[in-house]
């Protein structure tokens, strides 16, 4: 899978993309602590100067890798002009497809495995991934509550509950390798059930 860059690219976009892809493969192979800029340069080609032209340090590069892998387009997914059942289903399917890619599962295991030694990367992953997702969903629910299409007294609790129903069971099974990553058909079916159950409680 080739990572598509959605951030503002500067100077040499193709080189920046190559660095990001090389960094991802290196992080997944050696872990955060075992990854060096030298190894990333070896895989991406060029020089250390080309890496530091785009990224301040290894930490900055890791944060960018997370962004490229879990980048949210929640403004489009949580469309306030669509009925909640459509907007939330699109959001749920998109989140599941992102979270259960093989590379994302591998990245999540890396973060969990090295989070104690490098707590900053765990915080980065949460803030750029699950934390941002919950925040955007909370904002959407608050808006829909004010519009009267949903009745959500506590948007934060509702957002965390929805996320838990959507992710928790399959997240644990794939994290501990008790099952393969779910198929697209399974993800779609699960997303539909979660949205239906959620709206049974919160529909105005």
Low-confidence stretches: 1-11
Helix content class:
over 70%
* Helix/strand order: HHHHHHHHHHH
CATH class of the largest domain: Mainly Alpha
Estimate what percentage of residues fall within beta strands. Answer: under 5%
CATH topology of the largest domain: Tetracycline Repressor, domain 2
Count of DSSP H/I helices:
11
**Biggest sheet details:** none
What integer is the average pLDDT? 86
User: End-to-end span in angstroms?
Assistant: 41 Å
How large is the radius of gyration? 19 Å
CATH superfamily name of the largest domain? Tetracycline Repressor, domain 2
Number of domains: 2
Structure, explained:
There is one protein chain. This protein is mostly helical. The protein has two domains: 13-68, Homeodomain-like (Arc Repressor Mutant, subunit A), CATH 1.10.10.60; 73-202, Tetracycline Repressor, domain 2 (Orthogonal Bundle). The protein is built from eleven helices and no strands. Helix 1 packs across helix 7, helix 4 runs parallel beside helix 8 and helix 8 (119-128) runs parallel beside helix 9 (130-147). The longest helix is centred in the N-terminal third of the chain and has 22 residues, at 13-34.
Tags for this model:
mainly alpha, Arc Repressor Mutant, subunit A, Tetracycline Repressor, domain 2, 2 domains, 11 helices, disordered N terminus
List the helices and strands and how they pair.
Blueprint: H1 13-34, H2 37-44, H3 48-54, H4 58-70, H5 74-77, H6 84-99, H7 102-114, H8 119-128, H9 130-147, H10 155-175, H11 184-202
Briefly, what is this?
Helices cover 74% and strands 0% of the residues. The protein has 204 residues and is mainly alpha-helical.
């Amino acid at each position: 899978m080739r990572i598509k860059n959605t951030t503002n690219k500067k100077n040499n976009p193709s080189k920046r993309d190559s660095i990001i892809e090389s960094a991802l493969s290196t992080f997944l192979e050696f872990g955060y602590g075992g990854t060096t800029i030298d190894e990333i340069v070896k895989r991406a080609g060029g020089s250390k100067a080309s890496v530091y032209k785009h990224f301040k340090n290894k930490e900055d590069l890791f944060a960018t890798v997370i962004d490229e892998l879990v980048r949210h387009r929640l403004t489009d997914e949580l469309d306030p002009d669509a009925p909640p059942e459509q907007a939330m289903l699109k959001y749920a399917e998109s989140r599941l497809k992102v979270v259960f890619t093989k590379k994302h599962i591998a990245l999540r295991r890396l973060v969990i495995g090295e989070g104690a030694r490098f707590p900053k990367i765990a915080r980065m992953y949460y803030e750029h991934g699950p934390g941002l997702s919950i925040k955007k969903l909370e904002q959407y629910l608050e808006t829909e509550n004010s519009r009267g299409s949903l009745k959500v007294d506590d948007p934060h609790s509702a957002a965390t509950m929805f996320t838990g129903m959507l992710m928790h069971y399959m997240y644990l099974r794939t994290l501990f390798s008790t099952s393969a990553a779910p198929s697209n058909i399974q993800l779609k079916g699960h997303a539909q059930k979660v949205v239906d159950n959620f709206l049974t409680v919160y529909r105005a």
